[in-house]
Amino acid sequence: MCLKLVSILASFLILQSSFIVQKVGRDLSTYDQAGPYELNNDLHPHDADKILGEIRGFLWEHWKERRPGVVKATFFSIEGDQTTSSFFVEPDAKSSWRISVESVSIISALLPKRRKPRREITHEFYDEIERLEATSENAPPSVPIPSHSIRQPQTYRIRFRNSRTNAIRLF
Amino acid sequence: MAKQLRSVLAIPDSKKGANGTVFIQSGAWNTADYPLDLLQGAYIHEYGNILSSRYGGGDPYKFGDKAGIGNVKDKDTGANFQKCVFPSSVKF
C-alpha cells in the first residue's frame, strides 16, 4: 500500500516537472528545422551566397506565415574564429511573434599565444522583420520590399529590428 | 598564432617585416573568379588589425566594435576598419 502511494507520488512529480520543462523550454518537435549550415572560408563566395539565401528564405517564409522554425548555422570570421547561431522563429510568452538568435562564439585567432580561447554567448530578440532590396553599393540596403511580393532570397536582405532597443541586424 | 583555426581567409602578423605582414589564403587568391572586393576587404581588415596591434598597445581588439560586426560578431579592430573603409566588402 505504502509502496503504491510512493509510486503514485513519484509519477505525479515526474509529470509535473516535465510539464514545467515544456512550459519554460522549447518543444522543438513543433518547429520546422533547417541546417545545420556551415559558411566557412573554404567555400567559394557564390556557394556561400547560395547557403545564405536558403537561410534567408527559410526565415522569411516562416516569419511571413507565422510558422515556428529553427535554423542553425556556423559562421567564420576572416581569421577563422567561429560563431554558431540558432535562429528561432516563434511566438514569445505574450504570443507576439519574434525571431530570437542564440549565438556562441569562440574567440581565439588574434589572442596572444598562451591565452586560452574565449567563449561568448549572446541572445538577441527581434520583433520587426522586413526585406530590403540588396545593393552592391557601399550604402546599406534601405529600399523595402512589399511582404506579398515573391522574390528570390539572393535578391534581398532581411532587416531584423528590436522595437524596444532599436537594435538592428542585417542578414 | 593560428592555433585552433581551420578555415582562414587572411591573418595578420604585426611583427613580420618593417610594417607587419598580411597573409591571404592561397586557395582564395589563386581562384580565378574569386571576387576581388572580398580579397581587398580581407587585406584592409588585417591591415586594420596590424595598425591596432602596433599603435593600440598590442591589442588587435582595441578599436573594435564591442557588439561585434556581421553574422560572426567580429569584435576586432580590423572588422570595424573594414566596415568604415569598404563596407560593401563586409560579407562575414
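The beta strands of chain A are 32-39, 69-76, 82-91, 97-107, 118-126, 128-133, 144-145, 156-161, 168-170.
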